[in-house]
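Hi R.,

Here's the chain you asked about this morning:
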Amino acid sequence: MESTRSANADIFNHDDEAADYDNDVRNEGDPIRTGYREVLRWVVQQAQITPTSRVLELGSGTGNLSELIASCGELVSVDVSENMETIAKGKMRHLANRRFIKADILEVFTQELGEFDAVISTYAVHHLTDQEKQQLFALVFDRLLPNGSAVFGDLMVQNSSEREEEIQKYLAKGDPATAQAISEEFFWSLDTAIDDLKRLGFKVRAERFSDLAYGVIAQKPTSLEPTD
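And here is the predicted structure, written out as tokens:
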């Protein structure tokens, strides 16, 4: 399946924020950051990465997620920001078989990547429109080995109604920055995403970590298992 660069890849290139990014994400008093560390730990745990696993990380940033991987057979990290990758390199010395691809998380699938035991991603897929998320899920399904898992941690709302409720809630709290983020970025609509993932054949489970942070695990069945 062919893919194209996501529409907002350049807008969400965090080169200019790379130096301050790790300090920013430690501020869990910010509703956007609440649960950040717990989400990252959960994603790595649920991915069940072994010393022989091939792992694809989408939106590797400053390496906060992949530094939690104890070991793996190969890690392919993808991000559009070279400045973020410069910081990430220093956290990944324990992962000898790691390579970095500077690319958008959709366009990278035009490359010969092979198949993976696990695909992981945190706080990156909400930069894709709903249609682009649907496209990404299909590409991920194609690249996963049977019984492999895609594990995401990200900013989500249940549906479009809750999106509007959250915007109004944060405006009422005197927090226009969070309301603006919910309005202008593409937080997952969890109900829609789960339907899209299940339609592809994934077994899906979601877990909530804060008002806006969720984890989603999508497991590809073995070739012998019937899909719903």
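One quick note: The mean pLDDT is 92.

Cheers,
M.
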